[in-house]
Amino acid sequence: MDELVQMQIKRLRDMNFDADLLLSKRGELEQQWEDAFVKDLSKAQKRKIAFPQCMWNAFSWNKIECLKEQVAVDAFNQQKKVGCYLFYANIDDALFIKKANRIKAEDIIHTDSPAIEKTFTSVQNNPSYFNSVEELRADFYVVDEHFTWTYVLTHEEGCGPYFYKP
User: Fold this and answer.
1) What is the pTM of this model?
2) DSSP states along 109-135
3) Secondary structure letter of residue 11 according to DSSP
4) Gap between the Cα atoms of 76 and 79, Å rounded
5) Tens of pLDDT, residues 37-91
6) For strand 140-144 and strand 84-88, is the pairing parallel, antiparallel, or unpaired?
7) What is the rounded CA–CA span in Å between residue 18 and residue 123?
8) Phi, psi for 143 (deg, rounded to 5)
9) Among 4, 27, 67, 162, which residue is least crowded by beta carbons within 10 Å?
10) Distances (CA, A) of 39 to 27, 55, 139, 163
């Protein structure tokens, strides 16, 4: 299991979320994400925006209208949640939270989240963990169990977060 996923699952479990590790599920979840949220984009459009390497480019390149920045955070925090999948781009394992009704943006470990400094500080003396917060930079996707909405945090400063509900 990737260390970033370990950190996220530990944080969620410490907050009394019932979070399950899903081994090698990222590819399947990415395909479902694509089918649910960017199915109307042509192959040529996807190629032009570097999809699937950066799936969120569908939002940053304005190919799909979505909520951005603080409005996206607020929408995610207010969204009714039951079960949610959480996955990082380029990390094969994913997470599933069975009762995600109380999860908020600040609960997610990501370079742009308030949780990151606290999490990094608590593990930085452990040599098996990351040497800097920069090493935690990754695209992160949250989607409800039926793929009716998504919340995306990107690895790039100034891009996102994004919230999309068709």
Assistant:
1) 0.83
2) --TTSHHHHHHHHHHTTSTTS-SSGGG
3) H
4) 5
5) 999 989 999 888 887 778 888 998 888 999 999 999 999 999 999 999 999 888 8
6) antiparallel
7) 22
8) -145, 145
9) 27
10) 16, 12, 20, 17
How far is 96 from 153, CA to CA, in rounded Å?
A: 17
Identity at 133, one-letter amino acid code: V
For β-strands 84-88 and 94-97, DSSP reports them as antiparallel
Beta bridge partners of 21: 95
Exposure string of 60-75, with b = 16+ CB inside 10 Å and e = fewer, is beebbebbbeeebbeb
Say which amino acid occupies 100.
A
Closest to 19 in 3D by CA, of 95, 71, 103: 95
Strand partners, 151: 142, 163
d(CA 113, CA 138): 12
